[in-house]
Amino acid sequence: MMNSVCWSWRLLSKQRFSCQTHTSVFQRPIIDRFNSAAGSAFPFHLLTSTMASLVPATQKSIPQSDQTLTPHKGQGEKLEAKTVASGGKMTLKVPKGTRDYGPEQMAVREMVLSKIIDCFKRHGAQAIDTPVFELKEVLTGKYGEDSKLIYDLKDQGGELLSLRYDLTVPFARYVAMNKISNIKRYHIAKVYRRDNPAMTRGRFREFYQCDFDIAGIYDPMLPDAECVKVMTEILESLQLGQFQIRINHRKLLDGIFEISGVPSEKFRTISSAIDKLDKCTWEEVRKEMVDEKDLDPAVADSIFKNISYKGRPTEVIELLKSNEEFTKNENTKAGLESIELLLKYCIMMGIDESILNFDLSLARGLDYYTGIIYEAMLISTSKKDDIGVGSVAAGGRYDTLVGMFDAKGRNIPCIGLSIGVERIISIVEARVKKGTKLRTIDTQVFVASATKNLVEERLRVLASLWGAGIKAEHSYKANPKLLQQLQYCEDMGVPLVIIIGEDELKAGIVKLRNTKTRAELPIQRDQVVVDLKEAILSPEKFFA
């Protein structure tokens, strides 16, 4: 006890401490009171009374992570070691709702994204990018009840910022700020949501979105039908299995609310409740409407009756046309006409009507939608195939969002879709056979040496291959064993190997090996690039 107290006295009286954030609370009183006793006998009473008076203050005022004094050089190592030894050991993990992606996961991701981008480009879209964070006021009030999921950032230099929640609102801001009158764009980037993650279902807090949007004043339903076509092309190219695209119109929903007696100020909040029907039962949604949103129970029941229509579009359209309430209401009438025109164009574009489901319960909870809305769902054919993933693509028309950012309130009509790439990747990863090794590199040929002291010759061959645009690599060991080099090619799926040996050098040739069949052919050293390109194009024919 005496030794530890004396050590504390020497430390406080002889060592100078750095003044951190809490110096005035903890360090400074001790230093001042002990300095006043410098040169006298060891003041046990001062140490005891000072520490006793400061303990409550430090407990209340000092954050747990800041309760360690920071001495100058000479003491840091000891105190730091003491902190770690007392339980401050860090546990390495990724934050909740995020994940790392290894080479095999990235191979799946790149395959999926390449097919999506090919489709976007095939339809004439241009790529853009926007900052990962926006001014908080740009995002506020655009997502309805989902606004609570926005990540706000700490004030930095006087700007209140938030991480982007989606790519649509930043796109609308981009269009308004740059005074763009028409554009067809795609954007693939990360977005952030403070949601409860479900990793196995592809639900994350940090994830990629792949958006395709058409902005501009055009004739009704032509851009809308093309967006549905883009969605079907992507899902078909990814071979995810059977899918269905649910379609609806915001005007139909607004008309149903009017028919049912919903106050106009509650349209959007009731729409958000209906949007939960794919996750909750009607009883749960009704309870939310009545108990939390003060909707009359009879009105809620009327809503349920009117949104229960769903099925093949032509059949539902005919059914609704015979409903007098729907034909008399301006909103439902306009929405019905738009759906009918959309269906006509979709069929002309080669979309099979059997994959379309006209569903009046589809709401899409985001506040900015104004017209056509749609959502793609995978159809599970068996319990074995059911991976528990919800919608894999969705979108709709938002004609007034750009006007919210324009100084003169100028609106630019927009229609778009977002591909749920994380959910799609979860499906693809789950369907990859266990034990199946995915190729994670694009190397076309490996340059190997059969004997020692040939590293310089390998480099010369590599230079000629890289210069010709051929994807090639070699071992970073000067004298690697040939068997190890060949094994690497088999493990990584490198299809061709150039083998250089002393005998080959003397003859002015190299050997070209087919990794799969293990067949080998000699080729002239000065014809390596020409012959290799032929072998890459058609290995079976070249080695026949």
Fraction in helix: 40-55%
Poorly predicted regions are 1-31, 33-86
Q: What is the beta-strand fraction?
A: 15-25%
**Quantity of strands, as a count:** 16
Strand arrangement, major sheet: 1-4-5-11-10-9-6-8-7
Largest sheet: 9 strands, mixed
Alpha-beta content class: alpha+beta
Distance between the termini: 87 Å
What is the arithmetic mean of pLDDT?
83
Shape: elongated
Gyration radius from CA atoms, angstroms: 33 Å
Helical run tally: 21
What's the helix and strand layout?
Blueprint: H1 2-14, H2 23-35, H3 44-61, H4 76-85, H5 103-122, E1 126-127, E2 133-135, H6 136-139, E3 161-163, H7 168-177, E4 183-192, E5 206-215, H8 222-237, E6 243-249, H9 250-260, H10 267-274, H11 282-292, H12 297-306, E7 310-311, H13 313-321, H14 324-328, H15 330-348, E8 356-359, E9 372-378, E10 391-397, E11 414-419, H16 421-431, E12 445-449, H17 455-467, E13 472-474, H18 482-492, E14 496-500, H19 502-507, E15 509-514, E16 520-524, H20 528-537, H21 539-542
Parallel strand pairs: 1-4, 6-8, 12-13, 12-14
Antiparallel strand pairs: 2-3, 4-5, 5-11, 6-9, 7-8, 9-10, 10-11, 14-15, 15-16
Helix pairs in contact: 2-3, 5-8, 5-16, 8-15, 9-12, 9-15, 11-12, 13-15
